[in-house]
Amino acid sequence: MAVSRVPRLWLMAARCSAAILFLAGGCATVDSGEDARAKAASGARERGFTATTMRAGAFELFSLMRHAAPGGALTIYIEGDGAPWGSPYHPPRDPTPRVPVALEMANADTSPDVAWLARPCQYLSPNALQACDSAYWMQRRFSPEVIAAYDSAVTQLQAKSGALHIRLVGYSGGGVIAALVALRRHDIAHVITVAAPLSLSGWTAWHDLSPLDGSLDPGAQQPLRRAAPDVHFAGANDKIVPAEIIGRFVRSHGGRLETMAGYDHHCCWVRDWPRLLSRARSLEDSK
Q1: Lower Cβ count inside 10 Å, N or C end of the chain?
Q2: Per CATH, the architecture of 5-286 is what?
């Protein structure tokens, strides 16, 4: 990625500033990806999840799944972009999130069939991380090959669960992936995004940033699926992904924009997720 204001904002994130870009992390004790993986798997096991590594396209994706019975709806959560930059010109060596917001949302979901997907290069051993191209947590995080991998992962999870319906939920950059996957499939019943920059061109222009070369922009894609009761949550106080950016996608692609008073990019999605999820599903049922 060309030098731009993006690293500067990520440096602020590393200092626990409010200006955290696409991130679920903050100032916290730093675990290796391998240690974070073990911790995530252990905590999720207590809630009935099984950890596995999925081969999806060119990537090995760490995943968790809780499955009760075939024939229902499977909700798949997609994690945010991950760890903050440590300096203005140095991206993180390991993109594993310090605070995995989408994972915490999945843990708060009491539905019988729930899965969670990490992002490329997250939760890897040191040797595996060395072999993972850092472009996939920088400018190519939404590249065609990344979206194809998540398309494959969704197909695998659906087959494994026997689900008849798929819901995708994505936080921040994970919401961009959820939207892009849904735009290329006919079988996604419902999409929920949280604080996701769904118009990448609008988002980079808003912040006067260099474009994410090699990444797909959901706002520029033509949908394959029919209009669906998708819900896109925005924080009224979010300075990283303003509600207006999400609104641009909603106006061009449909769905419903839910702007939450008192929320920003981090607060208070996990705390209130059961209530917000219930709200989103009630809108789905009323469609």
Answers
A1: C
A2: 3-Layer(aba) Sandwich (3.40)
